[in-house]
Amino acid sequence: MNSGAGEYEMDARKRLLDLSKEKGASLASLSELLGRNASYLQQFIKKGSPKKLEEGDRKMLARFFGVPQEELGGPVGGALEENSYAAAGSSADGPDWVDVARLNIGASAGSGTLPMGEEAFDAFRFSRRWLAEQGLAGAQLSAITVEGDSMEPLLNNGDEILIDRRAQPFRDGVHVVRLGDTLMVKRVAQAGAGRFSLLSQNLAYPPVDVSADEMQLIGRVVWKGGRI
Fold first, then answer.
1. What φ, ψ does residue 54 adopt, rounded to 5°?
2. Going by DSSP bridges, is the β-strand pair 215-225/208-211 parallel, antiparallel, or unpaired?
3. Does pTM surpass 0.85?
4. Which of 59, 166, 61, 162 is nearest to 103 (CA)?
5. 161 with 173: CB under 8 angstroms?
6. How many helices (H) and strands (E) does the chain have?
7. 44 to each of 10, 47, 194, 210, how far by Cα in Å?
């Protein structure tokens, strides 16, 4: 019985490695997507540490890849994890246009707010050619709303932003991050030794220093729209 459990765990590690290669996502970038240190999934696959993925990590990866959790070591018989975030280039889109879900979420550009849900209530439609010109062909895009004034004048209260949720190597820039149950939009910069600085555009707000374990990187802000 122990041998069977071990084989199942090994299969889950192999499946994760195969999925990452199919998606073209590095293990380091997937680890950052989970809010973990860059070597987290590498150690899981190569060294079996941790022995099993935590439920939250497994669920997020299953949603990212669009597979049942059981393929990543979850309980057998689980349903396919549907990714609710529209991806440019998905087969559901037309040949010339891509629909990007507008989610019922606000990302605070102030002291932080509690997200109330992730339901899509509408969609933006973008030219596939325009997305390619912006370097966003194949991007995993969602639209959410900015709340607060800490990113003014770059982002204003009520602006809608596109975030690219693809797993990719981290670069300093404007990102949506989760701290506990709070979503925030900030300029994120590496601060060395596994730490990050969350910087506001509005200088009335001081920087916030966090460790990689405290912060979950949701996605990079790649576009904004708002009233003039």
1. -65, 155
2. unpaired
3. no
4. 162
5. no
6. 5, 9
7. 10, 6, 19, 24
